[in-house]
Specification:
Number of strands of chain A: 12
Helix content of chain A: 25-40%
Helix content of chain B: over 70%
Shape of chain A: globular
CATH architecture of chain B: Orthogonal Bundle
Order of helices and strands of chain B: HHHHHH
Strand content of chain B: under 5%
Largest sheet of chain B: none
CATH topology of chain B: Arp2/3 complex 21 kDa subunit ARPC3
Number of domains of chain B: 1
Radius of gyration of chain B: 15 Å
Strand order of the largest sheet of chain A: 1-2-5-4-3-12
Number of helices of chain B: 6
Largest interface: A-B, 60 and 56 residues
CATH class of chain B: Mainly Alpha
Distance between the termini of chain B: 12 Å
Largest sheet of chain A: 6 strands, antiparallel, barrel
Oligomer: heterodimer
C-alpha cells in the first residue's frame, strides 16, 4: 500500500519534471544548460569517435571478406589481414581526397577554412538535422559561421564551445538560405524540408525562368549568415507554372548529408562574391555559359526579367541598363 | 548492493547514449539509426522494476536531449523514456517469460516511444518534425528494436545478475 503510493509519487514527479522542461525549453530557456552539457559531453564524443574509428573501419571492411572453405583457412586469415589493411588505406585515400576537395573550393573562393571532423549525429527520432564537429572556439569557430565540404554548403554553426560545435544542416526543416540560380541570376529562398534529398526553392520573382537541372549558389550579403557563392544544389522538379505565386522547385543538395565526414568551417569570408566560380564545370551543357558567369557578367539572354535579377550584393554596379 | 547496480545502470545508459550519437550513425545503416538508448532503458526496467526503470529512463532521456548535437525541445525524450522504463518494469517482473515475448514487447515499446515523442512534439509545435519521415522511422524502430532487444536485454540481465546475485548469498 505504502509502496504503491511511493511509486505513484515518483512516476508523477518524473513526468511533471519532463513536462516542465518541455514548457521551459519552448519558452526559450535551457540554452545555458545545453551549452554546459555540450562542454561536458562534447569532448567525450570526440574521444569516442577517434577511438572507435579503426574499429568501425574494420567492421565496414568485414563485409568484403567471405570464403568459408576449410582448405584455405590460413589463406583466409592472411586475406583478412590484407583486407583490413586495404580498407584502412582506402579510407586514408578517401580522407585525403575530401581534404583535397575542401582545399580546392576554399582556394577558389578565397575563404579561410578550418577543417573539422564530424563526431556526432543527432538522432533521427528527433527529426532535427544536426551534427557535432570536433573544432571549437579555440580553433576560431563562432556561431553562424558556414560549414562546407568540397561539394558545397553543409550548414551553419548554431552552438559552439571550446572544443566542439553543433552544426545545423541545410536540410533541417528550420533552415533557410538565400539562393540564386546559376545562370538566370534569379533569386529566391531555399528551405530545408527535413528530408535528406529534397529541399524547396521559392522564387521571389514568379515570372523568372527556371529549368530542371539548373544549379543554385548561395546569395549572401556581407555580414550576413551565409557567404555568397557557395554551391547548394540542383533543381530536380518544378511545380506550378510561371506567374503563379506558389511556384516551388524541388532541389537536391550537392552535399550528401548521410555521409558527412570531413568538413570545413569558413572562419574568414571572401572580400568579393565568387559568384558561380565554385560550381564544378558542366559536363554536357555549353561550358561557355559557366565561364561567362564566372567572370562576373550574367548573360542577358538567359534572364527573362533582368530588373529582378539585378540586385548584386558584392557592391558591383548593376550590369543591365 | 544497490549502489553497484545504480552504477551499472549509469554506465549502461552513458555507453548507450554515446553509441547512439557517435558510433551508430557513422555506420550508415539503412533506415533510421537504431535506438540503443530506448532498448537499454527497457532492459534495465525489466531487471530493476518500474520505479527504478522510470528513474533510469528519465536520466537517459535527459542525456539524449542535452548531448550535442541535439537542438530539439528539452524533456520530450525524458518523458517518453520515463514511460518506457516504467512499462518495462511493470511488464518484466515475471522472470519465466519466453524471450520472443520480451523481444516483441521491446520492439513495440521502442516504436511507441518514437510515436509518442513525435505526437508530443507536434502538439507543442516542434518545428523540426517531418511527418513524411515518420512511417519509415517507425518501421526501422520495430526492426532494429527487435534485433537490439535480442542482443541487449539478455546482456543486461546477465550483467545485472553478475554485479549482485539476486538472493541466497
Amino acid at each position: 500500500m505504502r509502496d504503491s503510493r511511493r511509486l505513484r509519487t515518483i512516476i508523477g514527479l518524473l513526468i511533471l519534471t519532463s513536462l516542465t522542461l518541455i514548457v521551459l525549453s519552448l519558452k526559450g530557456g535551457g540554452a545555458t544548460v545545453r551549452t554546459g552539457a555540450q562542454g561536458a559531453i562534447g569532448p567525450v564524443e570526440n574521444a569516442v569517435a577517434s577511438v572507435t574509428r579503426p574499429v568501425r573501419d574494420f567492421f565496414t571492411s568485414l563485409g568484403s571478406i567471405g570464403s568459408k572453405d576449410q582448405t584455405i583457412a590460413d589463406l583466409r586469415a592472411h586475406n583478412e589481414e590484407l583486407q583490413s589493411k586495404l580498407a584502412t588505406s582506402e579510407y586514408a585515400r578517401n580522407r585525403a581526397k575530401e581534404l583535397d576537395d575542401l582545399l580546392k573550393i576554399a582556394g577558389a573562393g578565397d575563404y579561410k577554412v578550418v577543417p573539422a571532423q564530424v563526431v556526432g549525429v543527432g538522432p533521427d527520432q528527433g527529426f532535427a538535422w544536426t551534427v557535432t564537429i570536433d573544432a571549437g572556439s579555440i580553433d576560431g569557430l563562432a556561431v553562424d559561421q558556414d560549414v562546407i565540404t568540397g561539394q558545397g554548403l553543409v550548414g551553419r554553426i548554431v552552438r559552439v564551445t571550446k572544443t566542439d560545435a553543433t552544426v545545423e544542416l541545410l536540410v533541417d526543416s528550420t533552415s533557410t538560405v538565400g539562393a540564386r540560380v546559376e545562370r538566370s541570376m534569379s533569386i529566391g529562398f531555399l528551405n530545408g524540408t527535413g528530408e535528406a534529398t529534397a529541399m524547396s526553392f521559392q522564387l521571389l520573382d514568379p515570372f523568372a525562368q527556371i529549368h530542371v537541372g539548373d544549379r543554385l549558389v548561395s546569395f549572401g550579403v556581407r555580414g550576413g549568415i551565409y557567404v555568397p557563392g557557395l554551391p547548394l544544389g540542383t533543381i530536380t522538379d518544378i511545380s506550378g507554372k510561371a506567374g503563379q505565386l506558389t511556384r516551388v522547385a524541388t532541389v537536391t543538395p550537392f552535399v550528401d548529408v548521410n555521409s558527412l565526414d570531413l568538413v570545413g568551417v569558413i572562419v574568414d569570408p571572401p572580400r568579393t562574391n565568387p559568384r558561380d566560380s565554385l560550381l564544378p564545370p558542366v559536363a554536357s551543357a555549353s561550358p561557355s555559359a559557366t565561364s561567362g558567369s564566372a567572370a562576373g557578367e550574367p548573360s542577358p539572354a538567359d534572364s527573362v526579367a533582368p530588373d529582378a535579377a539585378s540586385p548584386d550584393v558584392s557592391g558591383n554596379p548593376s550590369p543591365s541598363s | 548492493m544497490a549502489w553497484i547496480r545504480g552504477m551499472l545502470a549509469v554506465a549502461l545508459v552513458v555507453t548507450s547514449v554515446l553509441l547512439q550519437l557517435t558510433v551508430l550513425p557513422l555506420l550508415h545503416l539503412p533506415g533510421a539509426v537504431p535506438n540503443v538508448v530506448t532498448i537499454t532503458v527497457i532492459g534495465i526496467g525489466f531487471c530493476a522494476g518500474s520505479v527504478r526503470g522510470a528513474i533510469v529512463g528519465f536520466v537517459a532521456g535527459m542525456l539524449v536531449d542535452l548531448a550535442p548535437p541535439s537542438i530539439a525541445t528539452l524533456g520530450i525524450t525524458a518523458l517518453v523514456l520515463v514511460l518506457a522504463g516504467f512499462a518495462a518494469g511493470m511488464f518484466g517482473e515475471d522472470p519465466d517469460r519466453p524471450l520472443l515475448l520480451i523481444i516483441g514487447f521491446s520492439s513495440l515499446t521502442c516504436a511507441l516511444t518514437v510515436l509518442v515523442a513525435t505526437l508530443v512534439g507536434g502538439i507543442v509545435g516542434d518545428p523540426h518534425i517531418t511527418w513524411s519521415r515518420v512511417p519509415g522511422i517507425l518501421l526501422s524502430e520495430l526492426i532494429y528494436g527487435a534485433i537490439l532487444a535480442a542482443l541487449i536485454v539478455p546482456l543486461i540481465r546477465w550483467l545485472w545478475a553478475l554485479v549482485a546475485p539476486p538472493t541466497g548469498r
